[in-house]
Design goal:
The chain starts with a helix and ends with a helix. The chain contains three helices and no strands. It has helices at 3-37, 44-47, 65-80. The protein is elongated, with a radius of gyration of 23 Å. It has one domain. By secondary structure, the chain is mainly alpha-helical.
């Protein structure tokens, strides 16, 4: 392999990587937009976390009591072992 072939391979690899990352980035943006539009997740309230970061501020999402029971049960099981 000569140096010109390696340089050519690096160039095409760089182009393929940039193309792939661009496609991935736009797919991620579309995913965020679609999930917020469908009401699955509200990402705007997460953007307020930087402003409301005091210890006395309210939580972004409250924890559900059903999830707490599952978490506590699994922690108790791990501690018992």
């Amino acid at each position: 392999m000569d140096m010109e072939f390696i340089r050519n391979l690096q160039g095409w690899g760089y182009v393929a990587m940039i193309f792939g990352l661009t496609i991935g980035f736009y797919a991620y943006i579309y995913h965020l937009y679609k999930s917020q539009k469908d009401g699955v997740k509200d990402y705007e309230k997460y953007s307020r976390m930087a402003l409301n970061d005091d210890i006395d501020d309210s939580l972004v999402e409250s924890l559900h009591p059903q999830n707490n029971k599952k978490i506590n049960r699994s922690v108790k099981d791990e501690l018992a072992e």
